[in-house]
Write a structure and sequence with these properties.
The chain has 2 domains: 2-157 and 299-347, Medium-chain alcohol dehydrogenases, catalytic domain (Quinone Oxidoreductase, Chain A, domain 1), CATH 3.90.180.10; 160-295, NAD(P)-binding Rossmann-like Domain (Rossmann fold, 3-Layer(aba) Sandwich), CATH 3.40.50. Helices cover 25% and strands 25% of the residues. It contains 10 helices and 18 strands. It has helices at 39-46, 97-100, 149-152, 160-167, 186-198, 210-218, 231-238, 254-263, 301-312, 328-337, and strands spanning 2-6, 14-17, 28-37, 59-60, 65-72, 84-87, 119-120, 123-124, 131-134, 140-142, 178-182, 202-207, 223-226, 244-249, 264-272, 292-295, 320-324, 343-347. The strands form 4 sheets. Strands 3, 5, 6, 9, 10, 17 and 18 form a 7-stranded mixed beta sheet that branches. Strands 13-12-11-14-15-16 form a 6-stranded parallel beta sheet, with helices on both faces. Strands 2-1-4 form a 3-stranded antiparallel beta sheet, with no helix packed on it. The longest helix has 13 residues, at 186-198. It starts with a strand and ends with a strand. The chain binds nicotinamide-adenine-dinucleotide and zinc ion (ZN).
């Protein structure tokens, strides 16, 4: 079968022929319907020195996958061949306190996981191929009625990651609250939809690209603000000087973290999802009182079930552009140059 593989750090992935996987006991092979192209893949191709992450190439890209059960390993009884499924992408040890409740991204026994802090497309072979081997059937989540695997694929990361980031701050998002979404790309435009579908917060979207701001508006943003020198002032004005109860930074650069902290309200959350690896100086008088700052990594398996439900009910619908596997590099090129809206989904 064909697979888009990252063969070494700081390189372009290559479309190569690899053997079709066969499932061992408790494993599942999924025929890929769609594999989302994430900006994290660009970070993987372009930025990381060997030793930055706890795993290394070569592996097949694609950590945002859905499709149909193709083959079941011995002992897997709760799935059937042909069934439409999503792949939960974070693969922890399965037995630690976190994994037992489905919080595999924060596995506390990484030496026992298939790869530490990774999964398919992140250290192990992912879904930018005709088939993906899922090493434990618990990561294969049946799709609810009415959700097509190509539409479901982005929900497993571009949906799940903002869902988790929003959900952990639900208690702050009563009517009268404001949320600022910085970066209305693959994750951010879904984040806006999730905020509108699950809370009564007012949503202000910030992006450098006018077309991304238009998409955010279509997704329900109440106000859009171009990224730049006057963004903080505009957001402060729009909140009566108080600032935002939640800032979701889907970029994570020095400038966006600074913007986030400068528009956060006292008693707020500043949640860093984007991995541009900027830094934020924190000092007693430098940031609002009781502004909590956290990074988040992906989401839990129970949360994926909730996101898929939102997708099946039409409450969350990622804007997607489809690319064939042989055109996957073109999708990343468009992401790099900023001409992609929403999410690119590779359809092998
Ligand atoms: P994307 O390229 O689809 O979207 C990024 C958006 O940010 C674009 O619309 C871009 O115009 C906008 N942007 C860039 N610089 C900006 C700035 N200075 N101010 C405002 N907007 C700006 O990327 P994506 O796939 O949505 O991923 C976003 C980030 O989240 C990436 O860094 C990615 O690696 C990361 N990510 C993190 C997790 C996690 O679990 N923490 C999961 C997936 C992706
Ligand atoms: Zn674990």
């Amino acid at each position: 079968m064909r697979a888009l593989r990252l063969t070494q750090w700081k390189s372009e992935p290559e479309l190569v022929e690899v053997p079709e996987p066969t499932p061992g006991p408790q494993q599942v092979v999924v025929r890929i319907g769609g594999a989302g192209a994430c900006h994290s893949d660009l970070h993987l191709m372009g930025e990381f020195e060997p030793g930055t992450l706890p795993w290394n190439p070569p592996f097949t890209l694609g950590h945002e996958n859905a499709g149909w059960v193709h083959a079941l390993g011995e002992g897997v009884t709760h799935l059937r061949v042909g069934q439409p499924v999503a792949v939960y992408g974070a693969w922890g040890c399965g037995t630690c306190a976190r994994c037992r409740v489905g919080v595999d991204p924060y596995c506390e026994n990484p030496a026992e996981a298939p790869v530490p802090s990774g999964g398919g497309g992140l250290g192990l072979d992912g879904g930018m191929a005709e088939y993906e081997l899922v090493p434990d059937a618990r990561h294969v989540v049946p799709l609810p009625e009415g959700l097509d695997p190509v539409d479901a694929a982005p929900l497993t990361d571009a949906g799940l990651t903002p869902y988790h980031a929003v959900r952990r701050s639900w208690h702050r998002l009563a009517p009268g609250s404001t949320t600022v979404v910085i970066g209305a790309g693959g994750l951010g435009h879904v984040g806006v939809q999730i905020l509108k579908a699950t809370t009564a917060t007012r949503v202000i979207a910030v992006d450098t690209r006018p077309e991304a701001l238009r998409l955010a508006e279509e997704c329900g943003a109440d106000l859009t603000v171009p990224s730049g020198d006057t963004a903080a002032e505009q957001i402060r004005d729009a909140t009566g000087g108080l600032g935002a109860d939640l800032v979701l930074d889907f970029v994570g650069a020095d400038a966006t973290l600074r913007l986030g902290a400068s528009v956060a309200r006292m008693l707020s959350d500043l949640t860093i999802v984007g991995i541009a690896r900027g830094t934020l100086p924190v000092s007693f008088f430098g940031v609002p009182y009781e502004m909590s700052v956290q990074t988040t990594y992906w989401g839990s398996r129970p949360e994926l079930v909730e996101v898929l439900d939102l997708g099946a009910r039409g409450l969350v619908r990622p804007r997607t552009t489809r690319f064939a596997l042989q055109d996957a590099l073109g999708a990343y090129e468009r992401m790099r140059e900023g001409s992609l809206l929403g999410r690119a989904v590779i359809v092998p």
